[in-house]
Amino acid sequence: VDERRDVELTRPRARLGLRGVFVAIVSCVLALALTGCVPAEGGPPKQLQRAIEQASSSEMTVRLSLQQLQDGKTLPTTASTTVEQMLTQVQSAQKDAEGVSIDTSKQSRARDKVVDTIAATARALLAVQHYLDNAGSGEGAFDTVMHRLAANRAELKSLHASLRPTR
Amino acid sequence: MKALLGVLLGLLTAIGGFVDIGDLVVEAEVGSRFGLSLAWVVIVGMIGVGIFVQMSGRVAAVSKRATFEIIRERLGPRLGAANLSGSFLINLLTLTAEVGGVALSLQLASSITPLLWIPVAGFAIWLVLWRVKFSILENVTPLFGLALVGFGIAVFLLSPNWGELFQSAFQPSVPKSEHPATYWYFAVSLFGSAMTPYQVTFYSSSAREEKWGLKNISKSRLNVIVGYPIGALFSLSIAACAMIVLLPNGIEVSSLTQTVLPVAEAGGKLLLAVVILGMVATTFGAALESTLSTGYTVAQFFGWSWGKFRKPKDAARFHLTMIICLIIGIGVLMMGIDPVQVTEAAVVFSAVALPLTYLPILIVANDPSYMGKHVNGKVLNGFAMVYLVLVLAAAIAGIPLMIITGAGA
Questions:
Q1: To probe the interface with A, which of B79, B85, B112, B117 has the most A CB atoms within 10 Å?
Q2: Does the predicted interface ipTM exceed a cut of 0.95?
Protein backbone atom coordinates (compact mmCIF):
# COMPACT_ATOMS: atom_id res chain seq x y z
CA VAL A 1 0.00 0.00 0.00
CA ASP A 2 2.75 2.42 0.98
CA GLU A 3 4.77 1.65 -2.16
CA ARG A 4 1.77 2.32 -4.34
CA ARG A 5 1.06 5.56 -2.54
CA ASP A 6 4.64 6.71 -2.97
CA VAL A 7 4.51 5.93 -6.70
CA GLU A 8 1.20 7.80 -7.08
CA LEU A 9 2.29 10.79 -5.07
CA THR A 10 5.58 11.19 -6.93
CA ARG A 11 3.98 10.82 -10.37
CA PRO A 12 4.27 14.05 -12.42
CA ARG A 13 1.07 16.05 -12.26
CA ALA A 14 -0.85 15.65 -15.50
CA ARG A 15 -2.76 18.50 -17.13
CA LEU A 16 -6.06 19.08 -15.37
CA GLY A 17 -9.26 18.36 -17.27
CA LEU A 18 -10.25 21.99 -17.79
CA ARG A 19 -12.78 21.04 -20.43
CA GLY A 20 -14.43 18.70 -17.94
CA VAL A 21 -14.49 21.45 -15.34
CA PHE A 22 -16.03 23.84 -17.87
CA VAL A 23 -18.70 21.32 -18.87
CA ALA A 24 -19.54 20.66 -15.21
CA ILE A 25 -19.90 24.36 -14.42
CA VAL A 26 -22.00 25.05 -17.54
CA SER A 27 -24.24 22.07 -16.68
CA CYS A 28 -24.81 23.40 -13.17
CA VAL A 29 -25.60 26.93 -14.43
CA LEU A 30 -27.93 25.53 -17.10
CA ALA A 31 -29.74 23.36 -14.56
CA LEU A 32 -30.19 26.34 -12.24
CA ALA A 33 -31.48 28.48 -15.12
CA LEU A 34 -33.89 25.77 -16.25
CA THR A 35 -35.48 25.56 -12.82
CA GLY A 36 -37.02 28.94 -13.60
CA CYS A 37 -38.78 27.49 -16.67
CA VAL A 38 -41.63 25.82 -14.83
CA PRO A 39 -44.47 24.50 -16.93
CA ALA A 40 -47.68 26.27 -15.87
CA GLU A 41 -49.95 23.28 -15.30
CA GLY A 42 -53.61 24.22 -14.73
CA GLY A 43 -53.23 27.57 -16.50
CA PRO A 44 -53.52 31.04 -14.95
CA PRO A 45 -56.27 30.07 -12.46
CA LYS A 46 -54.01 27.40 -10.95
CA GLN A 47 -51.15 29.88 -10.71
CA LEU A 48 -53.46 32.36 -8.99
CA GLN A 49 -54.63 29.62 -6.64
CA ARG A 50 -51.02 28.88 -5.81
CA ALA A 51 -50.41 32.55 -4.91
CA ILE A 52 -53.52 32.51 -2.69
CA GLU A 53 -52.33 29.33 -0.95
CA GLN A 54 -48.97 30.97 -0.27
CA ALA A 55 -50.61 34.07 1.18
CA SER A 56 -53.08 31.99 3.15
CA SER A 57 -50.30 29.84 4.62
CA SER A 58 -48.41 32.97 5.71
CA GLU A 59 -51.52 34.54 7.20
CA MET A 60 -52.30 31.37 9.18
CA THR A 61 -48.70 31.22 10.42
CA VAL A 62 -49.00 34.74 11.78
CA ARG A 63 -52.34 33.97 13.44
CA LEU A 64 -50.87 30.91 15.16
CA SER A 65 -47.76 32.79 16.27
CA LEU A 66 -49.80 35.71 17.55
CA GLN A 67 -52.07 33.41 19.53
CA GLN A 68 -48.98 31.70 20.98
CA LEU A 69 -47.61 35.10 22.01
CA GLN A 70 -50.91 36.01 23.64
CA ASP A 71 -50.87 32.68 25.54
CA GLY A 72 -47.26 33.25 26.63
CA LYS A 73 -46.06 30.25 24.62
CA THR A 74 -43.58 31.92 22.30
CA LEU A 75 -40.78 34.43 22.57
CA PRO A 76 -41.54 38.00 21.43
CA THR A 77 -38.45 37.87 19.20
CA THR A 78 -39.70 34.71 17.49
CA ALA A 79 -43.19 36.16 16.96
CA SER A 80 -41.72 39.35 15.55
CA THR A 81 -39.43 37.37 13.19
CA THR A 82 -42.39 35.27 12.07
CA VAL A 83 -44.47 38.32 11.13
CA GLU A 84 -41.55 39.92 9.29
CA GLN A 85 -40.80 36.77 7.27
CA MET A 86 -44.44 36.07 6.51
CA LEU A 87 -44.87 39.63 5.28
CA THR A 88 -42.03 39.00 2.82
CA GLN A 89 -43.76 35.77 1.72
CA VAL A 90 -47.07 37.55 1.14
CA GLN A 91 -45.36 40.29 -0.84
CA SER A 92 -43.69 37.59 -2.93
CA ALA A 93 -47.10 35.93 -3.49
CA GLN A 94 -48.50 39.29 -4.59
CA LYS A 95 -45.67 39.69 -7.11
CA ASP A 96 -46.31 36.13 -8.38
CA ALA A 97 -50.00 36.92 -8.86
CA GLU A 98 -49.20 40.18 -10.65
CA GLY A 99 -46.86 38.29 -12.98
CA VAL A 100 -49.44 35.69 -14.10
CA SER A 101 -50.03 35.92 -17.87
CA ILE A 102 -53.78 35.97 -18.52
CA ASP A 103 -55.70 34.88 -21.63
CA THR A 104 -59.17 36.40 -21.19
CA SER A 105 -60.79 39.46 -19.64
CA LYS A 106 -62.47 37.17 -17.10
CA GLN A 107 -59.07 35.94 -16.01
CA SER A 108 -57.85 39.53 -15.90
CA ARG A 109 -60.61 40.44 -13.45
CA ALA A 110 -59.81 37.36 -11.38
CA ARG A 111 -56.14 38.29 -11.28
CA ASP A 112 -56.94 41.85 -10.16
CA LYS A 113 -59.18 40.49 -7.42
CA VAL A 114 -56.48 38.08 -6.24
CA VAL A 115 -53.83 40.80 -6.24
CA ASP A 116 -56.13 43.11 -4.24
CA THR A 117 -56.94 40.42 -1.69
CA ILE A 118 -53.29 39.46 -1.22
CA ALA A 119 -52.42 43.15 -0.86
CA ALA A 120 -55.09 43.34 1.86
CA THR A 121 -53.41 40.36 3.56
CA ALA A 122 -50.09 42.23 3.47
CA ARG A 123 -51.78 45.26 5.07
CA ALA A 124 -53.25 43.01 7.75
CA LEU A 125 -49.79 41.66 8.52
CA LEU A 126 -48.43 45.21 8.70
CA ALA A 127 -51.13 45.91 11.27
CA VAL A 128 -49.91 42.89 13.26
CA GLN A 129 -46.36 44.21 13.04
CA HIS A 130 -47.58 47.57 14.34
CA TYR A 131 -49.41 45.79 17.16
CA LEU A 132 -46.23 43.90 18.15
CA ASP A 133 -44.14 47.07 18.05
CA ASN A 134 -46.60 48.71 20.45
CA ALA A 135 -47.34 45.61 22.51
CA GLY A 136 -49.51 46.21 25.54
CA SER A 137 -50.92 49.50 24.28
CA GLY A 138 -54.64 49.62 23.71
CA GLU A 139 -57.39 47.41 25.06
CA GLY A 140 -58.77 44.95 22.55
CA ALA A 141 -55.96 45.54 20.07
CA PHE A 142 -55.23 41.82 19.98
CA ASP A 143 -58.85 40.94 19.16
CA THR A 144 -58.94 43.60 16.45
CA VAL A 145 -55.88 42.25 14.60
CA MET A 146 -57.06 38.65 15.01
CA HIS A 147 -60.51 39.51 13.60
CA ARG A 148 -58.91 41.28 10.69
CA LEU A 149 -56.73 38.26 9.95
CA ALA A 150 -59.71 35.90 10.22
CA ALA A 151 -61.80 38.02 7.85
CA ASN A 152 -58.93 38.14 5.43
CA ARG A 153 -58.52 34.38 5.56
CA ALA A 154 -62.20 33.87 4.79
CA GLU A 155 -61.87 36.10 1.76
CA LEU A 156 -58.78 34.23 0.53
CA LYS A 157 -60.60 30.93 0.97
CA SER A 158 -63.68 31.97 -1.01
CA LEU A 159 -61.52 33.47 -3.74
CA HIS A 160 -59.53 30.22 -3.97
CA ALA A 161 -62.75 28.22 -4.34
CA SER A 162 -64.03 30.54 -7.08
CA LEU A 163 -61.06 29.85 -9.36
CA ARG A 164 -61.32 26.82 -11.63
CA PRO A 165 -58.01 25.51 -13.00
CA THR A 166 -57.98 24.84 -16.76
CA ARG A 167 -56.69 21.54 -18.16
CA MET B 1 -13.91 4.27 32.23
CA LYS B 2 -12.15 6.71 29.89
CA ALA B 3 -12.76 4.38 26.95
CA LEU B 4 -16.44 4.11 27.86
CA LEU B 5 -16.75 7.87 28.05
CA GLY B 6 -15.04 8.10 24.67
CA VAL B 7 -17.60 5.70 23.17
CA LEU B 8 -20.47 7.63 24.76
CA LEU B 9 -19.10 10.92 23.47
CA GLY B 10 -18.79 9.46 19.97
CA LEU B 11 -22.40 8.24 20.13
CA LEU B 12 -23.75 11.55 21.37
CA THR B 13 -21.90 13.52 18.71
CA ALA B 14 -23.14 11.12 16.03
CA ILE B 15 -26.70 11.76 17.20
CA GLY B 16 -26.33 15.52 17.70
CA GLY B 17 -24.49 16.00 14.44
CA PHE B 18 -27.02 14.12 12.31
CA VAL B 19 -29.39 17.03 11.75
CA ASP B 20 -28.39 20.14 9.79
CA ILE B 21 -30.14 23.01 8.02
CA GLY B 22 -31.20 20.65 5.20
CA ASP B 23 -33.15 18.49 7.65
CA LEU B 24 -34.60 21.46 9.53
CA VAL B 25 -36.00 22.94 6.34
CA VAL B 26 -36.90 19.92 4.22
CA GLU B 27 -38.30 17.73 7.02
CA ALA B 28 -40.64 20.52 8.16
CA GLU B 29 -41.62 21.30 4.57
CA VAL B 30 -42.34 17.64 3.83
CA GLY B 31 -44.22 17.14 7.11
CA SER B 32 -46.46 20.13 6.43
CA ARG B 33 -47.34 18.88 2.93
CA PHE B 34 -47.05 15.09 2.96
CA GLY B 35 -47.27 14.18 6.65
CA LEU B 36 -44.99 11.22 7.35
CA SER B 37 -45.54 9.58 3.97
CA LEU B 38 -41.88 10.23 3.10
CA ALA B 39 -40.54 8.81 6.38
CA TRP B 40 -39.27 5.78 4.47
CA VAL B 41 -36.82 8.04 2.59
CA VAL B 42 -35.31 9.20 5.89
CA ILE B 43 -34.74 5.57 6.87
CA VAL B 44 -33.30 4.69 3.46
CA GLY B 45 -31.07 7.79 3.59
CA MET B 46 -29.96 7.05 7.15
CA ILE B 47 -28.87 3.51 6.24
CA GLY B 48 -27.18 4.85 3.09
CA VAL B 49 -25.20 7.55 4.85
CA GLY B 50 -24.27 5.04 7.57
CA ILE B 51 -22.85 2.62 5.00
CA PHE B 52 -21.14 5.41 3.12
CA VAL B 53 -19.42 7.21 6.01
CA GLN B 54 -18.47 3.98 7.71
CA MET B 55 -16.88 2.78 4.46
CA SER B 56 -15.03 6.07 3.96
CA GLY B 57 -13.81 6.01 7.58
CA ARG B 58 -12.55 2.45 7.18
CA VAL B 59 -10.80 3.33 3.91
CA ALA B 60 -9.13 6.31 5.60
CA ALA B 61 -8.11 4.24 8.64
CA VAL B 62 -6.63 1.39 6.58
CA SER B 63 -5.17 3.18 3.55
CA LYS B 64 -4.12 6.26 5.57
CA ARG B 65 -5.60 8.46 2.84
CA ALA B 66 -8.63 10.73 2.88
CA THR B 67 -11.37 10.74 0.22
CA PHE B 68 -9.95 13.26 -2.23
CA GLU B 69 -6.42 11.91 -2.05
CA ILE B 70 -7.94 8.61 -3.18
CA ILE B 71 -10.12 10.21 -5.85
CA ARG B 72 -7.05 11.91 -7.34
CA GLU B 73 -5.12 8.64 -7.26
CA ARG B 74 -7.85 6.39 -8.61
CA LEU B 75 -9.48 8.64 -11.19
CA GLY B 76 -6.40 10.53 -12.36
CA PRO B 77 -6.12 14.31 -12.62
CA ARG B 78 -8.58 14.89 -15.50
CA LEU B 79 -11.59 12.91 -14.28
CA GLY B 80 -10.62 13.72 -10.71
CA ALA B 81 -10.75 17.46 -11.46
CA ALA B 82 -14.30 17.14 -12.84
CA ASN B 83 -15.17 15.22 -9.69
CA LEU B 84 -13.50 17.88 -7.54
CA SER B 85 -15.46 20.68 -9.27
CA GLY B 86 -18.82 19.01 -8.66
CA SER B 87 -18.13 18.09 -5.06
CA PHE B 88 -16.50 21.43 -4.28
CA LEU B 89 -19.46 23.42 -5.66
CA ILE B 90 -21.92 21.34 -3.62
CA ASN B 91 -19.78 21.86 -0.51
CA LEU B 92 -19.74 25.60 -1.19
CA LEU B 93 -23.52 25.64 -1.64
CA THR B 94 -23.97 23.65 1.59
CA LEU B 95 -21.59 25.98 3.45
CA THR B 96 -23.65 28.96 2.25
CA ALA B 97 -26.87 27.28 3.38
CA GLU B 98 -25.45 26.43 6.81
CA VAL B 99 -24.13 29.98 7.43
CA GLY B 100 -27.57 31.26 6.43
CA GLY B 101 -29.08 28.70 8.81
CA VAL B 102 -27.00 30.03 11.71
CA ALA B 103 -28.16 33.58 10.91
CA LEU B 104 -31.83 32.55 10.65
CA SER B 105 -31.64 30.62 13.93
CA LEU B 106 -30.07 33.59 15.68
CA GLN B 107 -32.79 35.81 14.24
CA LEU B 108 -35.40 33.67 15.99
CA ALA B 109 -33.74 34.44 19.30
CA SER B 110 -33.07 38.10 18.68
CA SER B 111 -35.39 39.33 15.88
CA ILE B 112 -32.30 41.03 14.41
CA THR B 113 -32.19 40.73 10.62
CA PRO B 114 -30.09 37.84 9.28
CA LEU B 115 -28.13 40.30 7.14
CA LEU B 116 -26.49 41.52 10.34
CA TRP B 117 -25.96 38.01 11.70
CA ILE B 118 -24.39 36.58 8.52
CA PRO B 119 -21.01 38.37 8.82
CA VAL B 120 -20.96 37.69 12.57
CA ALA B 121 -21.60 33.99 11.95
CA GLY B 122 -18.95 33.93 9.22
CA PHE B 123 -16.37 35.55 11.47
CA ALA B 124 -17.18 33.16 14.32
CA ILE B 125 -16.78 30.18 12.00
CA TRP B 126 -13.42 31.43 10.78
CA LEU B 127 -12.25 32.14 14.33
CA VAL B 128 -13.17 28.64 15.51
CA LEU B 129 -11.47 27.04 12.51
CA TRP B 130 -8.38 29.14 13.06
CA ARG B 131 -8.03 28.84 16.82
CA VAL B 132 -9.95 25.88 18.22
CA LYS B 133 -8.61 22.33 18.36
CA PHE B 134 -10.20 19.77 16.04
CA SER B 135 -11.31 17.50 18.89
CA ILE B 136 -13.17 20.38 20.54
CA LEU B 137 -14.90 21.73 17.44
CA GLU B 138 -15.83 18.20 16.41
CA ASN B 139 -17.49 17.37 19.73
CA VAL B 140 -18.88 20.53 21.32
CA THR B 141 -21.41 21.69 18.71
CA PRO B 142 -23.00 18.23 18.22
CA LEU B 143 -23.41 17.96 21.99
CA PHE B 144 -25.41 21.21 22.01
CA GLY B 145 -27.18 19.91 18.91
CA LEU B 146 -28.72 17.25 21.14
CA ALA B 147 -31.08 20.02 22.27
CA LEU B 148 -33.04 19.23 19.11
CA VAL B 149 -34.52 16.38 21.12
CA GLY B 150 -37.02 19.16 21.86
CA PHE B 151 -38.79 18.27 18.60
CA GLY B 152 -39.27 14.71 19.88
CA ILE B 153 -40.56 15.98 23.23
CA ALA B 154 -42.93 18.29 21.36
CA VAL B 155 -44.42 15.32 19.48
CA PHE B 156 -45.37 13.67 22.77
CA LEU B 157 -46.63 16.90 24.35
CA LEU B 158 -48.90 17.52 21.36
CA SER B 159 -50.71 14.23 22.13
CA PRO B 160 -51.16 13.27 18.50
CA ASN B 161 -53.37 10.59 17.04
CA TRP B 162 -50.64 7.93 16.96
CA GLY B 163 -52.62 5.67 14.67
CA GLU B 164 -52.82 8.44 12.09
CA LEU B 165 -49.08 9.13 12.43
CA PHE B 166 -48.14 5.47 12.00
CA GLN B 167 -50.57 5.04 9.13
CA SER B 168 -49.02 8.01 7.36
CA ALA B 169 -45.52 6.56 7.89
CA PHE B 170 -46.22 2.91 7.10
CA GLN B 171 -48.82 3.29 4.36
CA PRO B 172 -47.26 6.11 2.36
CA SER B 173 -49.39 7.75 -0.31
CA VAL B 174 -49.37 10.97 -2.31
CA PRO B 175 -51.95 13.44 -0.92
CA LYS B 176 -54.68 14.46 -3.40
CA SER B 177 -53.55 18.07 -3.28
CA GLU B 178 -50.03 17.14 -4.45
CA HIS B 179 -48.67 15.94 -7.79
CA PRO B 180 -46.74 12.62 -7.79
CA ALA B 181 -43.75 14.42 -9.34
CA THR B 182 -43.65 16.75 -6.32
CA TYR B 183 -43.71 13.74 -4.01
CA TRP B 184 -40.69 12.25 -5.79
CA TYR B 185 -38.93 15.62 -5.90
CA PHE B 186 -39.14 15.80 -2.11
CA ALA B 187 -38.06 12.15 -1.87
CA VAL B 188 -34.87 13.09 -3.73
CA SER B 189 -34.46 16.21 -1.53
CA LEU B 190 -34.75 14.17 1.65
CA PHE B 191 -32.34 11.57 0.28
CA GLY B 192 -29.90 14.38 -0.58
CA SER B 193 -30.26 15.99 2.84
CA ALA B 194 -29.53 12.65 4.55
CA MET B 195 -26.59 11.70 2.31
CA THR B 196 -24.77 15.03 2.07
CA PRO B 197 -21.34 14.64 0.41
CA TYR B 198 -19.63 17.01 2.86
CA GLN B 199 -20.35 14.56 5.69
CA VAL B 200 -18.30 11.89 3.94
CA THR B 201 -15.42 14.24 3.14
CA PHE B 202 -15.45 15.45 6.73
CA TYR B 203 -15.71 11.94 8.20
CA SER B 204 -12.82 10.49 6.22
CA SER B 205 -10.68 13.58 6.78
CA SER B 206 -11.41 13.57 10.50
CA ALA B 207 -10.21 9.95 10.53
CA ARG B 208 -6.89 11.28 9.23
CA GLU B 209 -6.95 14.29 11.58
CA GLU B 210 -7.30 11.94 14.53
CA LYS B 211 -4.85 9.42 13.05
CA TRP B 212 -7.30 6.52 13.11
CA GLY B 213 -5.94 3.00 13.12
CA LEU B 214 -7.66 -0.35 12.79
CA LYS B 215 -8.92 -0.29 16.38
CA ASN B 216 -10.99 2.82 15.60
CA ILE B 217 -13.04 1.01 12.95
CA SER B 218 -15.26 -0.88 15.40
CA LYS B 219 -15.86 2.27 17.44
CA SER B 220 -16.82 4.14 14.28
CA ARG B 221 -19.18 1.30 13.32
CA LEU B 222 -20.87 1.47 16.73
CA ASN B 223 -21.34 5.24 16.44
CA VAL B 224 -22.97 4.81 13.05
CA ILE B 225 -25.15 1.80 13.93
CA VAL B 226 -26.47 3.25 17.19
CA GLY B 227 -26.09 7.00 16.73
CA TYR B 228 -27.52 7.48 13.24
CA PRO B 229 -30.89 5.79 13.87
CA ILE B 230 -31.41 8.03 16.90
CA GLY B 231 -30.36 11.04 14.79
CA ALA B 232 -32.89 9.94 12.16
CA LEU B 233 -35.60 9.88 14.86
CA PHE B 234 -34.73 13.52 15.65
CA SER B 235 -35.12 14.24 11.98
CA LEU B 236 -38.46 12.44 11.73
CA SER B 237 -39.78 14.23 14.81
CA ILE B 238 -39.41 17.54 12.92
CA ALA B 239 -41.67 16.16 10.18
CA ALA B 240 -44.08 14.72 12.76
CA CYS B 241 -44.39 18.11 14.52
CA ALA B 242 -45.17 19.75 11.18
CA MET B 243 -47.73 17.08 10.37
CA ILE B 244 -49.52 17.47 13.72
CA VAL B 245 -49.70 21.28 13.88
CA LEU B 246 -49.05 22.79 10.46
CA LEU B 247 -50.72 20.39 8.01
CA PRO B 248 -54.24 20.71 9.50
CA ASN B 249 -53.88 24.52 9.48
CA GLY B 250 -52.90 24.64 5.81
CA ILE B 251 -49.45 26.01 6.63
CA GLU B 252 -46.77 25.07 4.11
CA VAL B 253 -43.30 25.60 5.52
CA SER B 254 -41.22 28.13 3.65
CA SER B 255 -39.17 29.56 6.50
CA LEU B 256 -37.42 28.43 9.66
CA THR B 257 -39.85 30.36 11.88
CA GLN B 258 -42.62 27.98 10.79
CA THR B 259 -40.49 24.96 11.72
CA VAL B 260 -40.54 26.00 15.41
CA LEU B 261 -44.26 26.85 15.65
CA PRO B 262 -45.23 23.31 16.77
CA VAL B 263 -42.49 23.36 19.43
CA ALA B 264 -43.84 26.59 20.96
CA GLU B 265 -47.37 25.20 20.74
CA ALA B 266 -46.35 22.07 22.62
CA GLY B 267 -43.79 23.20 25.16
CA GLY B 268 -43.98 26.98 25.34
CA LYS B 269 -41.05 29.37 25.69
CA LEU B 270 -38.72 26.99 27.53
CA LEU B 271 -38.87 24.22 24.94
CA LEU B 272 -38.69 26.79 22.16
CA ALA B 273 -35.52 28.29 23.66
CA VAL B 274 -33.98 24.81 23.96
CA VAL B 275 -34.77 24.01 20.33
CA ILE B 276 -33.43 27.36 19.10
CA LEU B 277 -30.18 26.62 20.99
CA GLY B 278 -30.08 23.23 19.25
CA MET B 279 -30.71 24.85 15.87
CA VAL B 280 -27.91 27.38 16.33
CA ALA B 281 -25.53 24.64 17.49
CA THR B 282 -26.37 22.17 14.77
CA THR B 283 -26.20 24.70 11.91
CA PHE B 284 -22.99 26.17 13.35
CA GLY B 285 -21.47 22.70 13.64
CA ALA B 286 -22.50 21.84 10.09
CA ALA B 287 -21.11 25.18 8.89
CA LEU B 288 -17.76 24.29 10.49
CA GLU B 289 -17.79 20.84 8.90
CA SER B 290 -18.79 22.05 5.44
CA THR B 291 -16.20 24.85 5.54
CA LEU B 292 -13.53 22.35 6.56
CA SER B 293 -14.74 20.07 3.77
CA THR B 294 -14.15 22.75 1.14
CA GLY B 295 -10.57 23.07 2.40
CA TYR B 296 -10.13 19.30 2.59
CA THR B 297 -11.36 18.61 -0.95
CA VAL B 298 -9.13 21.18 -2.61
CA ALA B 299 -6.02 20.63 -0.47
CA GLN B 300 -6.20 16.83 -0.66
CA PHE B 301 -6.71 16.88 -4.41
CA PHE B 302 -3.80 19.21 -5.13
CA GLY B 303 -1.55 17.51 -2.61
CA TRP B 304 -1.23 20.57 -0.37
CA SER B 305 -0.44 20.36 3.28
CA TRP B 306 -3.79 20.16 5.09
CA GLY B 307 -5.41 19.47 8.42
CA LYS B 308 -6.33 21.09 11.70
CA PHE B 309 -3.60 19.00 13.34
CA ARG B 310 -1.13 21.36 11.64
CA LYS B 311 -0.67 24.98 12.62
CA PRO B 312 -2.31 27.41 10.15
CA LYS B 313 1.12 28.61 8.97
CA ASP B 314 2.01 25.03 8.06
CA ALA B 315 -1.22 24.52 6.09
CA ALA B 316 -1.60 28.02 4.69
CA ARG B 317 -3.30 27.14 1.39
CA PHE B 318 -5.77 24.87 3.19
CA HIS B 319 -6.78 27.73 5.50
CA LEU B 320 -6.79 30.26 2.67
CA THR B 321 -9.18 28.06 0.68
CA MET B 322 -11.57 27.94 3.63
CA ILE B 323 -11.39 31.71 4.13
CA ILE B 324 -12.12 32.36 0.45
CA CYS B 325 -15.05 29.92 0.50
CA LEU B 326 -16.47 31.55 3.61
CA ILE B 327 -16.20 34.99 2.00
CA ILE B 328 -17.97 33.71 -1.13
CA GLY B 329 -20.74 32.12 0.97
CA ILE B 330 -21.21 35.29 3.02
CA GLY B 331 -21.16 37.39 -0.17
CA VAL B 332 -23.91 35.29 -1.75
CA LEU B 333 -26.10 35.59 1.35
CA MET B 334 -25.46 39.32 1.70
CA MET B 335 -26.96 39.79 -1.77
CA GLY B 336 -30.26 39.00 -0.08
CA ILE B 337 -30.71 35.47 -1.38
CA ASP B 338 -33.04 33.49 0.88
CA PRO B 339 -30.98 30.90 2.83
CA VAL B 340 -33.98 28.54 2.76
CA GLN B 341 -33.94 28.53 -1.04
CA VAL B 342 -30.16 27.97 -0.99
CA THR B 343 -30.78 25.00 1.32
CA GLU B 344 -33.47 23.55 -0.95
CA ALA B 345 -31.10 23.79 -3.92
CA ALA B 346 -28.18 22.38 -1.89
CA VAL B 347 -30.01 19.20 -0.88
CA VAL B 348 -31.13 18.43 -4.43
CA PHE B 349 -27.70 19.08 -5.91
CA SER B 350 -26.20 16.97 -3.12
CA ALA B 351 -28.23 14.05 -4.43
CA VAL B 352 -27.10 14.86 -7.97
CA ALA B 353 -23.41 14.98 -7.00
CA LEU B 354 -23.50 11.98 -4.68
CA PRO B 355 -22.12 9.40 -7.17
CA LEU B 356 -18.98 11.54 -7.55
CA THR B 357 -17.81 10.62 -4.07
CA TYR B 358 -19.75 7.39 -3.54
CA LEU B 359 -18.36 5.45 -6.48
CA PRO B 360 -14.62 6.03 -5.88
CA ILE B 361 -15.00 5.12 -2.20
CA LEU B 362 -16.89 1.94 -3.11
CA ILE B 363 -14.20 0.96 -5.62
CA VAL B 364 -11.35 1.57 -3.19
CA ALA B 365 -13.19 -0.22 -0.36
CA ASN B 366 -13.06 -3.31 -2.59
CA ASP B 367 -9.44 -2.87 -3.70
CA PRO B 368 -7.07 -5.21 -1.81
CA SER B 369 -4.04 -3.14 -2.86
CA TYR B 370 -5.39 -0.32 -0.68
CA MET B 371 -7.39 -2.24 1.89
CA GLY B 372 -5.55 -5.53 2.27
CA LYS B 373 -7.80 -7.95 4.14
CA HIS B 374 -10.16 -5.12 5.18
CA VAL B 375 -12.03 -5.00 1.86
CA ASN B 376 -15.85 -4.90 1.94
CA GLY B 377 -17.55 -8.14 2.92
CA LYS B 378 -20.22 -9.74 0.74
CA VAL B 379 -23.16 -8.48 2.81
CA LEU B 380 -21.86 -4.92 2.89
CA ASN B 381 -21.17 -5.04 -0.83
CA GLY B 382 -24.72 -6.26 -1.45
CA PHE B 383 -26.10 -3.22 0.41
CA ALA B 384 -23.53 -0.94 -1.21
CA MET B 385 -24.57 -2.08 -4.70
CA VAL B 386 -28.26 -1.50 -3.93
CA TYR B 387 -27.33 1.98 -2.75
CA LEU B 388 -25.24 2.57 -5.84
CA VAL B 389 -28.41 2.05 -7.89
CA LEU B 390 -30.39 4.36 -5.56
CA VAL B 391 -27.68 7.02 -5.61
CA LEU B 392 -27.53 6.93 -9.42
CA ALA B 393 -31.35 7.03 -9.71
CA ALA B 394 -31.54 10.06 -7.39
CA ALA B 395 -28.70 11.77 -9.27
CA ILE B 396 -30.39 11.27 -12.63
CA ALA B 397 -33.90 12.20 -11.45
CA GLY B 398 -32.94 15.20 -9.27
CA ILE B 399 -32.66 17.98 -11.84
CA PRO B 400 -35.53 16.88 -14.14
CA LEU B 401 -37.84 16.65 -11.10
CA MET B 402 -36.66 20.07 -9.95
CA ILE B 403 -37.56 21.54 -13.34
CA ILE B 404 -40.90 19.73 -13.72
CA THR B 405 -42.13 20.65 -10.24
CA GLY B 406 -40.68 24.17 -10.14
CA ALA B 407 -38.49 23.15 -7.20
CA GLY B 408 -41.43 21.59 -5.37
CA ALA B 409 -43.77 24.56 -5.81
A1: B85
A2: no
